[in-house]
């Protein structure tokens, strides 16, 4: 079957498609994996590659289920152990349940040097990879040599011994990496290109280009030096973050204006052979672990076992073997490996299993750069629960508990990453379903499932008492605002927070520990750069602009206006009363816009089609004509330069053509959405080209005449609020007339006419026309401005703000967080904690110490974000009493008191001095069950010319009987 003809189940794989791309998805769907070793590491890899969607997986293992498998293999149950079932048989059906598109087979034959592996060549697939977990590296090498030349040997070997793990990959000496990074090439707009040798390219607005010496770039839309357009040029030298040198441009035409370059991805051949690097320590990192693991291989060969737990004699034998590898030896590391080699740390196998699984997908697809070639190292909520289960976190017999909360229901797209869920769980609660699945892994757990968001609206549930019962808080959130809120609650309640997130192949973890580290809110990422209003409205230059414009049109027409319309009539239920008040000269906010909607309200399908056709004329022809009327192509700025030069693109009006699929898609999707907000029914036949053409033949398109209006060109200007814009007397009279006509002619007094049905943008339902509208509108606007259009998949991702996700990164990040959980619960010192950033595509893993908590001093008193001062009050306690109590207890002069956004006392504010006599109860007005409030207090500086100093939160208790 040709790869381009294969259909991808987007409802299942949508998030993964954004990471891997369709070509890689097709290759995976035709590839098979032979996976040997069903221990903790093997089952992690099996889970991830089956979720990813390969064609077939053969699971291989020769061992029976044992008790300690329950602590490392989440698909083995107590019944499997008691019945002495083979491990591979126990896990097969559970692995197969993860993805109905993947065929899962098993093998329990002995795998050694005498095994005939030619059966792998008989499998029907484009590519294969052999993965071995827990096997000796040398055996893998020897097994690999048995593959014939017609099937390039692709191997991946993983081992996890206690606190040490390793991954090795060898995809053959002719393995080609088609896309080393997976990053989308960004357009770099050009300010200038010199006529010189070498030519120097300067970026517009001094924006950093992010290029590296030796990379290749492609030039487009350059004016003047047009010989460069479409050519591939090598970056001979990066001169600055904003300029770079290319080849000789001295003989080319002078650069005039405009143009952009984008990075060209160059396929490269990767991977040395195992023979070349197996015993070459200079290629390995980290050297100490590599040497110890090689010695461990030798120990197993000589003794046919791993070192015994805690055996000093075995440790010394392993140390001696390590010294023979001829590298400097860390004796304590080797002894630690010997003591723990028989054990398994589930979070560690989860982390390295995610990394190794990504290497499997690289071998199959050529997407992303493989490991070079060893690595050693000592959907997130589901993965986290699995790790908790295997670790024994929250055991009921130990009075432990795991509390999880999620307000969402399970969708099909979740099944690709959230392995606790199955197809029959779709539209069930995520949290309760996850809790039930977790019990299957470890019945001794105590899990409490909630259906709420953790936010200010649920503080009655997730109050301070709730947080005080938690030993640690683990988040798997998808937005910054939610993270900041949970972080603030953890800080105020002195609770450790383990935060993490993924985007595609990238992942990060952040460890926040009371009194040791800074918090999440201690650092601020730079805000996302907003697209200027004038750019969206009139001057788009890249496809992201047209997609955002289309999404804004959707929100305005099908969400904002219907919501505003409904809200207006809820406050003004009678059109007759509204008419009387308007005739009396009363100004009713929003009335002008509501009456326009009422006057233009379609009542049947034919009118919806007509609206779609008129919108097409307005958006893609008239707007362009008006813009060219305001700024003809020869318009020049005050400095004499052309108005229409990069990044501004002049528009080209589009003539409507029903035979153009894009034109048809826009009209029909627009009509469907107007039918939806006005509750107008239509049939499948009504969507046909014949019916639509018949309707459009009766639609009259008014003749265009240019308007005398200004066009906003200031990039700092904000979008105007149309509701609050002034309405002139003529518009008021017109609105009154339209309302009178609606009441008298149409008989509109109440009921359905006074209600609309807002359409909240739903990206994952391909039957509602939402993405159809945005995709067609964006592509048409891109055509108007000669911008390279995006396909539907990319448009859907950008418009829906979809975060690309893949199971391998999810598993890795959850494993890393669970490792830090062990340290937090074990009350480790600051030096033991590690934040992590990784990118499985490159691949790179960076471990760093968390930011150490900062101490601030006021008048010889040190405090940090984790400190909270307390004052005990009573019913008659005044603001003056509060300030005196702070002064006496902490020896600092308070100058200002704020509660949330309410200023309780600011001495320069008029009348605030009178507040000193008021009670705290009267000033704050707490609810009956409120025991305390956290106040922001500023203190007098030591020098007169300095500003007031903010101190830590001051927790004021309304009763002296409360216990802080």
State the end-to-end distance: 70 Å
Q: What is the annotated CATH architecture of the largest domain? A: Orthogonal Bundle
pLDDT under 50 segments (min length 5)? 122-126, 143-152, 281-285
Whole-number count of domains = 6
- Kindly identify the CATH topology of the largest domain: Arc Repressor Mutant, subunit A
CATH class of the largest domain: Mainly Alpha
Shape: globular
Q: Would you identify the CATH H-level superfamily of the largest domain?
A: Ubiquitin-activating enzyme E1, SCCH domain
* Helix proportion: 25-40%
| Tally of helical runs | 28
Which quaternary structure do these chains form?
Answer: single chain
Secondary structure class reads alpha+beta
Radius of gyration: 33 Å
For the residues shown, what is the average pLDDT?
Answer: 87
Keywords:
globular, ATP binding, Rossmann fold, E1_4HB, ubl conjugation pathway, alpha+beta, 964 residues, Ub-activating_enz_E1_C, Elongation Factor Tu (Ef-tu), domain 3, 15% strand, single chain, 7-stranded antiparallel sheet, 7-stranded mixed sheet
